[in-house]
């Protein structure tokens, strides 16, 4: 692999060449900003993840909301520390209760990531490599997609990337304590965003300093102090929740720690090579260019002292992939914190041996990506957002219900984004509360009217306590054994409307129901 030496330089590479100039950085920032903001709010919130995070942030943003304890549909939700909810709730208050405001948080995380990558890459390899690394990262599939999806992953990636950059600056300044404190602050904020996954890039930095023989980097990192300090500063929220609900100790330590590593929590599991094919798609469109260029180097040079030549950024990628592959819990988004450092590796491969300015051919992957952005962000979401099964958005359904003046709505599937879109309506879910709504036993019975047991619901249909007035039923076609099937025939003549994978029924106060089914 024909790349520059990975050793950290005290000063950036000379920038006397026409490329990059200050103007090039401004152009790059404008282009990347445009493709990330483009149609940011045109797509409805997708369940379950975007709907869940928006639901929790909405509860905090409303007057009187509890900003310390995340609550989803009235139940406590303790999977993640609260920083991502705080950021989203603040955005909702400032920009309004809409999809664009909800996605300001991942956009902010993407901006932090690109800024941290530029900072670190300039210090490590100079402005020319840094410019290309930022371009490659901002136009990679995984990074762009996750920069437009409300989840903790991009915000955590931003803090982790800044943490690496602050460490690079700390090393350049011979371990200056002020930069070490900045490193600590970034990793602590990453922990407050998604806890333990944030430590994977940090482990890569530590192992990379040993693999590359970077003693100055190890001294600047002060891992013996940094890791305990991050854990200490990241613990107040967990201690506060345990103080309120001691029964959460099993949830935090068994379900969220042990079972994530060796168990099968929420069905998130896969083989050891799970991330191999995924990465080949996630890190398009630039890695084939780097692979082609690397293949042109002499065979004797391709693997010579590779553990030093890949630099610390390469070790962040290698260690991260190994750790995420060994952990049983697997999701496509877990490898997002590695994307900036993959981009830096690719930039070193495709740009290091040329002094020329970029040609139209060298920018072809970025141009192709821009075309895909227009097609994917503008033409596609509105057509399919209600046809994605459990990952659908309920926005079109809720828009129709709002146009009909619906105030009392019952659904046979849990859609947390319904509460975001229909804040003034009364929404009930006719199903047994899922594991996410039973994270602590004391939650039982807190919101008895939000989640209704199907058997009790069927009995109530012919009883005197049936709520008066008109109601709407939202039937998800992917829901098996729906209680609505015993109440209404599924013939098209009885449907009030059909939107995507959803059938909507307007029913009166006393619909007929089979007593045998109710029993």
Distance between the termini: 71 Å
Structural class: mainly alpha
Shape descriptor = globular
Helical content band: 40-55%
Our estimate of the beta-strand percent is 5-15%
Over all CA atoms, what is the radius of gyration? 26 Å
Q: How much is the average pLDDT?
A: 83
The helix tally amounts to 26
- Write down how many β-strands occur, each being a DSSP E stretch of 2 or more residues: 8
Largest sheet: number of strands, sense, barrel closure: 6 strands, mixed
| Strand arrangement across the biggest beta sheet | 5-4-3-6-8-7
Q: Ranges with pLDDT <50 over ≥5 residues?
A: 4-18, 353-357, 435-442, 510-519
Give your account of this protein's structure.
This protein is mainly alpha-helical and 519 residues long. Among the domains are: 103-242 and 270-349, no CATH class; 389-518, no CATH class. 54% of the residues lie in helices and 6% in strands. It has helices at residues 22-37, 49-61, 83-95, 99-102, 104-125, 127-138, 141-146, 152-172, 177-194, 199-211, 215-221, 223-233, 236-244, 248-262, 275-282, 287-295, 299-302, 306-309, 311-326, 339-351, 364-379, 381-384, 395-403, 417-421, 454-460, 515-518, and strands at 71-72, 75-76, 408-411, 426-430, 451-452, 471-476, 497-499, 502-507. Strands 5-4-3-6-8-7 form a six-stranded mixed β-sheet. Strands 1-2 form a two-stranded antiparallel sheet. Helix 5 runs antiparallel to helix 6 and helix 5 (104-125) crosses helix 20 (339-351). The longest helix has 22 residues, at 104-125.
């Amino acid at each position: 692999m024909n790349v520059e030496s990975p050793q950290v330089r005290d000063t950036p590479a000379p920038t006397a060449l026409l490329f990059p100039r200050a103007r090039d950085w401004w152009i790059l920032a404008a282009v990347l900003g445009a493709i990330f903001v483009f149609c940011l709010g045109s797509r409805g919130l997708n369940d379950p993840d975007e709907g869940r995070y928006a639901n929790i942030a909405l509860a905090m943003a409303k007057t009187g909301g509890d900003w310390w304890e995340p609550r989803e549909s009235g139940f406590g939700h303790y999977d993640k520390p609260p920083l991502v909810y705080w950021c989203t709730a603040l955005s909702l208050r400032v920009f309004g209760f809409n999809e664009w405001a909800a996605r300001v948080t991942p956009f902010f995380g993407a901006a932090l990531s690109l800024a941290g990558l530029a900072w670190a890459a300039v210090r490590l390899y100079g402005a020319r490599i840094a410019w290309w690394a930022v371009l490659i990262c901002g136009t990679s599939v995984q990074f762009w997609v996750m920069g437009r999806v409300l989840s903790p992953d991009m915000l955590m990636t931003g803090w982790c990337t800044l943490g690496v950059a602050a460490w690079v600056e700390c090393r350049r300044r011979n371990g200056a304590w002020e930069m070490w404190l900045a490193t600590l602050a970034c990793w602590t904020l990453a922990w407050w965003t998604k806890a333990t996954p944030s430590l994977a890039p940090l482990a890569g930095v530590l192992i990379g300093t040993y693999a590359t023989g970077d003693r100055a980097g190890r001294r600047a990192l002060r891992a013996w102090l940094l890791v305990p300090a991050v854990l200490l500063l990241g613990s107040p929220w967990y201690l506060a929740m345990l103080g309120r609900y001691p029964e959460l100790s099993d949830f935090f330590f068994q379900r969220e720690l042990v079972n994530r590593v060796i168990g099968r929590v929420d069905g998130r599991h896969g083989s050891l090579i799970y991330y191999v094919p995924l990465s080949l798609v996630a890190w398009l469109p630039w890695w084939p260019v780097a692979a082609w260029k690397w293949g042109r180097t002499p065979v004797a040079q391709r693997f010579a002292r590779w553990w030093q030549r890949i630099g610390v950024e390469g070790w962040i990628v290698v260690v991260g992939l190994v750790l995420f592959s060994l952990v049983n819990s697997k999701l496509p988004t877990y490898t997002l914190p590695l994307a900036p450092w993959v981009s830096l590796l690719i930039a070193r491969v495709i740009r290091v041996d040329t002094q020329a300015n970029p040609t139209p051919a060298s920018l072809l992957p970025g141009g192709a990506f821009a075309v895909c952005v227009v097609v994917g962000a503008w033409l596609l979401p509105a057509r399919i957002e209600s046809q994605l099964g459990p990952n659908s958005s309920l926005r079109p359904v809720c828009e129709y219900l709002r146009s009909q003046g619906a105030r009392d709505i019952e659904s046979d599937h849990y859609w947390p984004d319904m509460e975001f879109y229909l804040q003034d309506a009364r929404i009930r879910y006719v199903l047994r509360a899922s594991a996410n709504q039973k994270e602590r036993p004391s939650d039982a019975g807190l919101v008895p009217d939000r989640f209704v047991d199907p058997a009790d619901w069927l009995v109530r249909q012919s009883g005197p306590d049936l709520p008066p007035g008109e109601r709407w039923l939202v039937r998800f076609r992917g829901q098996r054994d729906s209680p609505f099937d015993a109440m209404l025939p599924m013939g098209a003549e009885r449907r009030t409307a059909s939107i995507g994978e959803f059938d909507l029924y307007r029913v009166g106060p006393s619909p007929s129901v089979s007593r045998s089914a109710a029993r």
